[in-house]
Design goal:
InterPro entries: Hexapep (IPR001451), Hexapep_transf_CS (IPR018357), LacA-like (IPR039369), Mac_dom (IPR024688), Trimer_LpxA-like_sf (IPR011004)
Distance between the termini: 64 Å
Structural class: alpha/beta
Shape: globular
CATH topology: UDP N-Acetylglucosamine Acyltransferase, domain 1
Order of helices and strands: HHHEEEEEEEEEHEEEEEEEEEH
Mean pLDDT: 97
CATH superfamily: Hexapeptide repeat proteins
Helix content: 25-40%
EC number: 2.3.1.-
Number of strands: 18
Number of helices: 5
CATH class: Mainly Beta
Radius of gyration: 19 Å
Protein name: Acetyltransferase
Strand order of the largest sheet: 1-4-7-12-15-17-18
Family: Belongs to the transferase hexapeptide repeat family.
Keywords: Acyltransferase, Repeat, Transferase
């Protein structure tokens, strides 16, 4: 017979009223409390706490306090990650974030789901569905990433977006519900590389 934790991680119905899950939550809340109470001078200590909290991270990861999550231990974060203030990651299912990903303020990733049937729901059973974010992604402020969503690589998600379906690679997407606005093209690359070249010229580089 599977434990409640095993059921949760298998994306099956489970009960959160479980001693093992309660202990995992206690651990994550302790680490978050310590992290959120740090000062800006305690950068190295913040890194230690984040590496204890998450299942795996890159070497370079920066999260602005305050930060909230369910477990942390179900989240994998790639190299060169940045999250602005008030990020929330509810990781009852696996959350995978690629490299070079940036979050604006108040971005929320939510893997939990609750049964539509009210009887089953009020009896306390729930489930989770994994969220995956690719490489080189920028997610704007107040965006909501819903359960089961995969966001491709090289994507920009507009602020306030409510992402309910998968987003392919190399697009700008926004809105509620979130939809693809346009592709990111070679013209975009040329435009921004021209501005970058002008920037370096200003500094004599």
């Amino acid at each position: 017979m599977k434990t409640q934790k095993e059921r949760m991680l298998a994306e099956e119905l489970y009960s959160p009223d479980d001693a093992e899950l309660r202990e995992d939550c206690r651990r994550s809340r302790q680490l978050m409390r310590l992290f959120n109470q740090t000062t800006e001078e305690q950068h190295d200590y913040r890194q230690v706490l984040l590496k204890q909290l998450f299942a795996k991270t890159g070497e370079k990861i920066y999260i602005e306090p305050p930060f909230r999550c369910d477990y942390g231990s179900n989240t994998i974060i790639g190299e060169n990650f940045y999250a602005n203030f008030d990020c929330v990651v509810l990781d009852v299912a696996k959350v995978t974030i690629g490299k070079n990903v940036m979050f604006g303020p108040r971005v929320g990733i939510y893997t939990p789901g609750h049964p539509i049937d009210p009887g089953v729901r009020v009896r306390g059973l729930e489930f989770g569905t994994a969220v995956t974010i690719g490489d080189n992604v920028w997610i704007g402020a107040n965006a909501t990433i819903n359960p089961g969503v995969t966001i491709g690589s090289n994507v920009v998600i507009g602020s306030g977006a409510v992402v309910t379906k998968d987003v392919p690679d190399n697009v700008v997407a926004a809105g509620n519900p979130c939809r693809v606005i346009r592709a990111i093209t070679a013209e975009d690359t040329a435009y921004w590389e021209k501005l970058e070249k002008a920037y370096h010229a200003d500094f004599g580089e």
